[in-house]
Please model this.
Amino acid sequence: MSTWLPKSASSRRWLGLAPSYIVIGIFMLIPMVIMGVFSFLEPNPYGGVKAVGSFDAYVKLFFEYDLEDQLVFNPGYINIVWRSFQLSIMATVLCLVVGFPVAYYITLQPENKRNFYIYLVTIPFWTNLLIRTFAWIIILGRGGVIELPLQKLGIIDDSLRMMYSDGAIAVGLTYSYLPLMVLPIYASLEKLDFRLLEAASDLYANRWVTMWKVVIPLCKPGVVAGCILVFIPCIGAFIAPNLLGGGKKLMLGSLVQFQFSSARNWPFGAALSMLLLSAVVVSLIFYARAAKKRALMEGEV
Amino acid sequence: MKYIASIFAAAAVALTGGLAKAGGELFIYNWTEYTPPELIEKFEKETGISVSLDTYDSNETLLAKLQAGATGYDLVVPSQNFVPILVGEGLIQKVAVHELPNYKNYKDEWRKPEWDPEQEYSSGWQWGTTSFSYNHELYSGKGESLAEFFEPSEEVRGRLSIFQTPDEVISLANIYLGTEFCSEDPKVMKKIQDMLLAQKDYVVALNSETMSDLLTSGEAIITNHWSGYNRLGRLAGAPITYAYPKEGVVGWFDSLVVPTSAKNVENARTFMNFMMDPVNMAMLTENQGYGDAVKGTEAYYSEEVKTAPEINPPKGLNVVFAPTCSPKAQALIDKVWTKVWQ
Amino acid sequence: MSDHMNETKNIMKKKKILPVGHFRGLGAWTFAFFIYLYVPIVVLVFYSFNSNRMVMNWEGFGISWYLKAFSNNNIQQAVLNSLIVATVATACATAIATIGALVLARGGSFKGKTLSLGLITLPLMVPEIVTAVAVLIFFSSIGMNLGLGNVIIAHITFCIPFAFMPIRARLEGMDTTLEQAARDLYATEWETFRFVTVPLLMPGIVAGAMLAFVISLDDFIITLMVGGAGSTTLPVYIYSMIRRGLTPEVNAISTVLLFFSIAIVTAYWIVSKKSQTKTVH
Model:
């Protein structure tokens, strides 16, 4: 192997990146460029696009024609985007709060047990998301797994109305995305050298200080990876909001889906996803900048 | 490495497996559980054609896939309002359904329907209606009018569920208000929008998946529902009744059509012909519990199917089959829906 | 196991340092976490024995849905397709992501690093339906129609970032002294990679592969759109049931799949125990 590997660092680099570049470049970037182009075209009446340039899709994001055909500002779609972001933030925070201690606990286990725990975390996700969500309906629903015993014991007599609430969405979303948080955190925590903790405790730092000053900075890459993996897919989620939340407030995921299905407005669907893409990219760039600055400062120290 | 190689080998077998069979083949693309396995077995035995079945979730998916190009399917099952679109886009081909020998069994009232005036493209699969259902133990009404659905009484507050997508809800609203389907008139759509906004206060959930369960648990006491789906829930013990309001209900009619890209057109026609034989169609109806368009199937029905209210609507019921909406009308529908649920 | 660092670490933890870094209630929290994780699973397994047709309407105990699932070729084919796609996609995506992560975490800073990072995470940032439609259009415009092959390629693509993130997180800040030492001891580059880097990286690779696997196993929209004839997977099968409603048959097949996965874990557990006793001797 070492004989045919190129010697120069830069050609090795490109050799290593080539598979990702080829696969994602061809099967993701090109399709996305096609979508980008679509967002500047006119919709075809029955799905697809007409080869006529137009900014209508982007105008539609912010404005609408009222009944007198006047262009007026329409916050509707922006609200939907904002609501989806809020929901994602909530789910990400919940996943982090629930998942971090678990990842940490798994790291504390003897080595041969750790993989077992990791399997244990992933096994529930072998079953289909829809079926798992149905199980939550059985648990939270009227006269369900939680309510029935309480009713039988006479603690409550009416329904607790747990379904179709923001709480139900939170439970469902957190449940859907937990392994995406636990696994990356575990992967970066696992290399934690416990001698560092020992050193910290020798220096009379209490547990929480050690956690904050030693453990968290060390596993930060894992926490960041986990947050990204939960946050972004969550923006497009619609199964939990629809089935557990009742779907009474449109979410970005459903809205985009809707454009490609019954609304048959592909350019608008494409424009919505371009908006989402740029929002995510901008926030990631900001994050990267901030991280770099921090790294530089720490480097100087 | 060996593992990976063997997985690749397995994948390669899976990829080419479909092509290896000698003799006739038929690729059907239909909704899940919409094609009884015993029917396929019977067809395979009688004709020696081997059938492969794939599934999709909506008419829109079917349209998008056919529009994107050849997918290798010989028979697909769109609803009536998608047939003209598929014809207009050149995605399905003429197969002279009216010349098939068993066409003589086709019910007169379903011959040459609006969506296929010469019966060149389509032969019926199943048809049914869309309306609403109620839990007859918890709800005091009788489901006699669409008013109970659109302008519900106080007992329904927070216990009403409607479909997740606008098309059928707005079609029902048109029937209730007596306005024309696919209206391009903003005033008409404004009226519908106001009605839906008022109805919104009563809605507990938008749901197109678990209506019977919602009604059974009492989470909702009125839901949008499909006829056959309601029957299955009722047979499973749910205390639900399917409403036939006096204003009418929305109808849908799914039919077999042959994509332009089909490779086994003759086999597809053979299957169409096979399905117009009352024995076979009765098998499908018995399994599905919707209606069919073939004469003489009644003779093979079980007593349950013969008398099920969902399959045998009251005489004189106004069933309106939704046409294909113009882009302008579709845009208005979407605008109303986003306004109501944004 | 050959890794002495970890060995010593274990011993240290077991003996003296154990209390350090532990928190009161951590075990209880994890226990509660697993209850949260498994209660829905218990419920869905329980309901697979429901003799009623409606998933959520309990009638009585019965195995009729298992019998139905075992005689239903379509659902079996769908499960098989799902497993083939998930396994192949996971293997390929994890391999690609591992090399990519090595370059991006170890290759120093170079021009185009941020861009490469962006490219690899691109599949993550696009709503699924958009990817699905875009890839469908792309595939059909180049005339690619490989049936299940289309699905596998699409899955490899969107699984890469899910495999990549944990591996990169693992690599970040992992020190290179062991690899240096190996090189100093005249190990070849390949040997160093195979016997030092990969074992060190293993937790990241396992985590990444697991994520890729469950993500692939659950995908519906992309599979539905890009798949050709003969490529119905389990999620596609399930989501297309809406015309008649879900039945406990789906619970039954999920339960079978669940026990299959538990069997794998148990096998792994036994094997790893055996190999451990071997190293001790």
Observations:
- Chain B touches chain C through 49 residues (CB under 8 Å).
- The two ends of chain B are 52 Å apart (CA to CA).
